[in-house]
Amino acid sequence: MKLHPDSETGTVQFAGKSVTYFDTGVPGDGRTPIILVHGTGGTTDTHFRTVFPMLAARHRVIGLDLVTTKDSDLDELIAQVVEVIEARAGGTPVHLVGYSLGAVITAALAGRRGELLSTLTLIAGWITTDKQQRLRNSVWKSLFADGGRPLQEFQTLLAFSSQFLRSRSDADLENLIQSRTFRDGFDVEMEINRTIDIEADVNNITVPTLVIGATKDLMVPIIHSYMLLGGIENARLAEIDSGHGVTVERPAQVFMLIDDFVADPAAVAAGKTIEPLKV
CB burial class (10 A; 0-12, 13-18, 19+) of residue 277? Predict the structure, then answer.
């Protein structure tokens, strides 16, 4: 199933790899594109399935699926995003949106290639991997070696808030568990996550930035969003009552925040917290 009736699928080549994109416009469209970068083990579909069509109702949207192989590192993933921007945006600075590892990638990109961006939105991102994150990563690695149901349950438990999980029917919860699949490169991305340190890049970010943190996030606790707020000169913060899977739990709030921000990045002053949305 297509992400959106108007989206076209294509590929760009980088270092012998075909990076797939989903674009609701064409080069020369005239609208500033919103570029969506998914997180660890995800795809545009799994991490932005609901947010993509909401944004596409008002904007040109481009999602991309990162290609991760055993020799991949953070620099290569950043380069893949740059390749898509340069191939599809036609020289227009873009609204760049990253989720989880995608937020790390896009923040580092913004610090290195700020001329490519009009705005930056970081959802559930972080600057430096801390001890709590490394501990979770180690448990994940042990479960991944064994494979099977325990890893699916572990991922589901940590991805969503307790309120969200309690609200699911037994059938819905089972579908959530079964949907936790592990694409090629997932383990490589988890290894990349262990050693993230993009402080130097974050300190160089000058574009207007929106930081979105999830208050019940167990994978990337909201303290990391406050660190991003403090580390980026022109940033403002929005909190959403959600677990890490905020694009699944609260897609309408994610959409509203991005839509408002790209329309008027200066509506909320740098360093301020956006009033919680009532949805």
Answer: middle
Number of domains in the chain: 2
Q: What whole-number distance in Å separates Cα of residue 264 and Cα of residue 150?
A: 45
pTM as predicted: 0.96
Residues facing residue 5 across a β-bridge: none
Burial of 153 (0-12, 13-18, 19+ CB in 10 A): middle
Helices (H), the chain: 44-48, 51-56, 74-88, 101-112, 131-146, 149-159, 162-166, 170-178, 186-194, 199-203, 223-231, 246-249, 251-263
Measure CA 139 to chain center: 22
Residues 77 and 174 in one domain: no
3-state secondary structure of 4: coil
pLDDT in tens, 254-273: 999 999 999 999 999 999 99
Q: What percent of the chain has pLDDT over 70?
A: 98
The β-bridge relationship of strands 61-65 and 117-123 is: unpaired
> What is the residue range of 68's domain?
8-127+196-263
For residues 150 and 139, give the distance between their C-alpha atoms in angstroms, rounded to a whole number.
11
| Same domain membership, residue 97 and residue 174 | no
User: CA 251, CA 190: separation in Å to the nearest integer?
Assistant: 24
Residue 169 structure tokens: 């029917």
- Biggest alpha carbon distance in the chain? 50
- pLDDT at position 277 is 65
Residue corresponding to tokens 């699911």: 168
Question: Which portions of the chain are predicted below pLDDT 50?
Answer: none
Specify the pLDDT at position 1: 57
